[in-house]
Amino acid sequence: MDAKLKNNLATITFWVGAGLVMLILGTLLGYIFYHGLKSIDWQFITAPPETVRAGGGIGPQIFNSFYILFLTMMISIPIGLLAGIYLAEYAGRSQLAEGVRIAIETLTSLPSIVVGLFGLLVFVNATGWGYSIMSGALALTVFNLPFLVRVSEESIRGVSRELVEGSLALGATHWETIWRIIVPCAFPSLITGIIITSGRVFGEAAALLYTAGMSSPPLDFSNWNIFSPTSPLNPFRPAETLAVHIWKVNSEGLIPDLRRVADGSAAILVLVVLSFNFGARWLGRLIQKRLTAV
Amino acid sequence: MKRGIKVFALLVGIVLLMAVVTGCGSGKNNQQSEEGQVQSGGSEGSITAVGSSALQPLVEEAAKQFMTDNPKTQIVVQGGGSGTGLSQVSSGASDIGNSDVFAEEKLKAEEASQLVDHKVCVVGMAAVVNPDVRVDNVTQQQLIDIFTGKITNWKELGGADVKIQLVNRPSSSGTRATFKAIALKGAEEAKGIEQDSSGTVRKIISETPGAIGYLALSYLDGSVTPLKLDGIEPTKENIINGKYPVWAYEHMYTKGDATGLAKEFLDYMLSDDVQKSLVVDLGYIPSTEMQIERDVQGNVTPK
Amino acid sequence: MKKRLFYDKAGHGVTMLCAAFVIILTISIIYYIGSKGLSTFFSNEVSLWEFLFSDQWRPDRSPGEGGPQVGSLAFIIGSISVTLLSVAISAPLGVIVAVFIVEIAPGWGQRLLQPAVELLAGIPSVVYGYIGLSLLVPVIRSLFGGGGFSMMAGFLVLSIMILPTIISVSTDTLRAQPVEWKHASYALGATRWQTIRMAIIPAARSGLITAVVLGMARAFGEALAVQMVIGNTREIPTSILSPIMTLTSAITMDMGATVQGSIWNSALWSMGLLLLLMSLFFIMIVRCVVRRGAV
């Protein structure tokens, strides 16, 4: 009887715990969207921010966030994928593989502010680029790489061995097998993993404070000359991202409508990250269907 | 199957392209900034001004106007803090360093001596309290006693019976440095809540019973009560004529005398276009109107 | 044929280079942060003892007044206490939810909770900080008095932030356990709770410890979310309602306002180094636990 009672109590506790997590999530999302969606309109999403007057937008910040994300991914996907292939296909239990694993664990648990400090030393000061998109993207590469290597390795390990052995038996080299069989088969889960890590990169702020900087110079969106300082595409201009902007308006904001800007920015940030999360699953399933149907 | 490879090949291609472009980009960039420094007299080229986040809005707005008037110029304004601004201008990484404090207070003497100061405006500060404390005037000694923790309740000053809550600024902030040096005569404050942001400080003081802190005059909006110091109100006029002592310069430093575009821009900062409109709009006090001067040791002389 | 073999070799080489790059990157981070962080003790000649165990933080004092002092004890205590308190909440809750997902949840619970945990993990840290600042801080202020900006606000925000880490690692561990133990336990007539307590949790112990340590590492290194809600007062906290300062928020707030090479600036780099060493320490714990668990 006693054991039964305990068992029932325990069951209740487990349900309460699970309910609590759902409640927390519901509260967070409800709060963000209830406050945020009120302040979002087309003008807010496209207009440049104001430094002192009310009514500013977050157009450049949204652009900066996506652009830095794009550059980061351009740099970190090739390295991450190739390192992942090495770990899954070539390394076995070698010393190097063990070293890479330790390095990845270290990088994963590195506080992002420390990544930012490293970026400040190496990308901002040593290269002389100053606060710039490039410095920010490289710092985020450091931040992102361990996750990408892990994602790649797991996706590649998930490919069925029969296919690989079949390919090798038909006389393909190991490398050909990797590119023609393994990577395409791992593609759906690779894409899913990459998009989910994109969400993390998109919302990161601490690593960017002292690398991409906290200011957004006026941008001229009709100027596509990559070398011009007003061009949005110039990778050597300072760029404040959306996440950094939320932090900055809360810590140094002069504008009277600070709450509105912060609420709206937070809602957009969370919306983008959520759509990355859901989009990743959906796309992964879609590609899976397309590939297996062929 | 094939499609995946193609997409990937495309990605790799783009990456290589980016690498090439950024490689050229950085080369080109350096060239540009060098050109900017070599340029003199002609209104084109590009300069950077880095530093104080308090000064950033003013410099940004001024730069916007300047670039509208001179479309061939490029002035990149960045925040990052006074320390960053001074480091960068003294190492030559940026053309102008914006700072809330005199360079002598942060840099080594030999580094500071190479920099040339341009005092673009003055910022006034006031001790502010939660409106419910019912005190609006303190003597300087009382203010020091409040911030050093000797006076702990507002009723000791004839106000309401509430405990005093100190709201401080981080020790790295320019506002704090000025307030401590001038309003508190250098006394060490007792510890209180520390907030980086003026907006948050104002919010906390307006919502917390018994709170006292200090803010730049541009942040006063009626939600908090500014304290008179020895009966003198913290107003623009009282600062200009030297009656109210708690104020500081906002500095823009160049390494050696300003030349070329940097000089043009700094002249513009001190011209009536900026001093009479932007500076006033942002709640600063035009340095051109000041009737007194203060040096780094704090000695005040009539101008 | 030759070409194909060459590609095969080259491919192996290139992947190996990328893998080696990860190691080089890690070593260079340790080297750069280390050399900057140690300069406090070598070129500025601050004693290590003072930096770690003194609470006298007066980096702006002139030498005439006996300054500058850079004792960081208050920040270290702030970081440690806020981390431990957040783990004290999240570890039990996280394990409970993980067990629920793996052992108890009917299909719909699992379908609902798994994405929920991922969403929690996906919310950016500035957003956590902002919600903490605008929702949690006023609530604490009205319930307990004081300013609201406090250690309590800090560890509550952190405990929610590290929950996803603890839940997902614990879930993976629990899923990896062999089923035989569970079946044996039920066969002996144990209730579900007895089975969870006596068979499932002890078997997964090393994995659960790993989950908690990883959560702890994340809490220790979190910067902005914490900085926004803890009030940032540079003194040793006396209660969970007192405003505190952590290593991360000290770096965030002062890095831009200090000049390269000054004692103050060097002390901030030393704090960065301390954070780095702490994360290495956490990794070591994890590796030891896993190795012990494997034996």
From TrEMBL, chain A:
Membrane topology summary: Multi-pass membrane protein
GO molecular-function term, one example from the UniProt record: phosphate transmembrane transporter activity
Subcellular location: Cell membrane
Alphabetical list of InterPro entries matching this protein: MetI-like, MetI-like_sf, Phosphate_PstA
GO terms (BP aspect): phosphate ion transmembrane transport
Transmembrane segments: 12-34, 66-88, 100-123, 129-149, 266-284
Any one of the GO CC terms: plasma membrane
Residue intervals of the ABC transmembrane type-1 domain: 62-280
Main location: membrane
Key words of the record: Cell membrane, Membrane, Transmembrane, Transmembrane helix, Transport
Pfam families registered for this protein in UniProt: BPD_transp_1
UniProt xrefs under PANTHER family: ABC TRANSPORTER PERMEASE PROTEIN YQGI-RELATED (PTHR43470:SF4), PHOSPHATE TRANSPORT SYSTEM PERMEASE PROTEIN PSTA-RELATED (PTHR43470)
Family listed: Belongs to the binding-protein-dependent transport system permease family. CysTW subfamily.
Name listed for the protein in its UniProt record: Phosphate transport system permease protein PstA
Organism: Desulfoscipio gibsoniae DSM 7213
UniProtKB/TrEMBL annotation, chain B:
Highest taxon above the source species: Bacteria
All copies of domain PBP, residue ranges: 40-273
SUPFAM superfamilies: Periplasmic binding protein-like II
Organism: Desulfoscipio gibsoniae DSM 7213
Protein name as catalogued: Phosphate-binding protein
GO molecular function: phosphate ion binding
Topological category with respect to the lipid bilayer: Lipid-anchor
Keywords: Cell membrane, Lipoprotein, Membrane, Palmitate, Phosphate transport, Signal, Transport
Function: Involved in the system for phosphate transport across the cytoplasmic membrane. Part of the ABC transporter complex PstSACB involved in phosphate import.
TrEMBL record, chain C:
Family, similarity comment: Belongs to the binding-protein-dependent transport system permease family. CysTW subfamily.
Keyword Thylakoid recorded: no
Function recorded in the entry: Part of the binding-protein-dependent transport system for phosphate; probably responsible for the translocation of the substrate across the membrane.
Alphabetical keyword list: Cell membrane, Membrane, Phosphate transport, Transmembrane, Transmembrane helix, Transport
Any GO molecular function: phosphate transmembrane transporter activity
GO biological process: phosphate ion transport
Protein name from the UniProt record: Phosphate transport system permease protein
Bilayer topology term: Multi-pass membrane protein
TM spans (from-to): 12-33, 73-104, 116-137, 143-167, 207-230, 267-290
Domain of life assignment: Bacteria
Coiled-coil annotated residue ranges, if any: none
Every ABC transmembrane type-1 domain range: 76-286
